[in-house]
């Protein structure tokens, strides 16, 4: 036992204490608050300021493309701002105030659609300061918030919001309740507006969903002569697809109204495009009566044809 004890003491006595290594010498010495951040060069400041000024100036350039809110694909459409007007087209404006009046009727207010309509019209026009917009909305001039939003987008434009109540009242008085419910007010309202707003003697009606790519002032040079309105032809829709030729022949033989043509109707004639109209308000006295008469006669004719069909 003593031998084992001596061997343990000898091994223990032969151990040498290890000196701790100084690892601080391997690290870099830290001197706080002596190493400052690098100062950027003045050239970088100048370039950054020039970039900000350049981006700000880009906001004053006219719009070259737009996206229609009704387009599900949200494609960018370029404005046709480089087309030159026809030399044979003359510019005619309202004789009273020297403005080109543009009217649009919207059953449910959508500011995005109106903004696109106004922007496309102003951007493609050579005389944007001569355009005066009249937007007929459900609330009209009572909707101050919508008006100021449009003025923020188009601060230098002439635009007004009008109500629809008076126009609807005239149509209701001239028709029955069933006829009124079946009428498309967006197609009839443009012809009733001059009787409510007598200052609008001649104007251009534009559907709110329409995007104008050409110069709208060129339409004012069209000579209406004795006609109350002018519309473009839509040959994708034909007359015989809406009304039977037998019905038209029967109406011409039996009815005598000033709005019925004396000559036979062309059965495959192109239908008018009612989304863009040039209207002379001084010659619209009998229009509402004619529209309601045709609507009533055609509805009766459709019922008669259905009832006369063999079982």
UniProtKB/TrEMBL annotation:
<keyword id="KW-0328">Glycosyltransferase</keyword>
<dbReference type="GO" id="GO:0016757">
    <property type="term" value="F:glycosyltransferase activity"/>
</dbReference>
<dbReference type="GO" id="GO:0005794">
    <property type="term" value="C:Golgi apparatus"/>
</dbReference>
<protein>
    <recommendedName>
        <fullName>Hexosyltransferase</fullName>
    </recommendedName>
</protein>
<keyword id="KW-0812">Transmembrane</keyword>
<keyword id="KW-0472">Membrane</keyword>
<feature type="region of interest" description="Disordered">
    <location>
        <begin position="1"/>
        <end position="34"/>
    </location>
</feature>
<comment type="pathway">
    <text>Glycan metabolism; pectin biosynthesis.</text>
</comment>
<dbReference type="InterPro" id="IPR050748">
    <property type="entry name" value="Glycosyltrans_8_dom-fam"/>
</dbReference>
<keyword id="KW-0808">Transferase</keyword>
<feature type="transmembrane region" description="Helical">
    <location>
        <begin position="43"/>
        <end position="61"/>
    </location>
</feature>
<dbReference type="InterPro" id="IPR029044">
    <property type="entry name" value="Nucleotide-diphossugar_trans"/>
</dbReference>
<feature type="compositionally biased region" description="Polar residues">
    <location>
        <begin position="14"/>
        <end position="27"/>
    </location>
</feature>
<feature type="compositionally biased region" description="Low complexity">
    <location>
        <begin position="1"/>
        <end position="13"/>
    </location>
</feature>
<keyword id="KW-1133">Transmembrane helix</keyword>
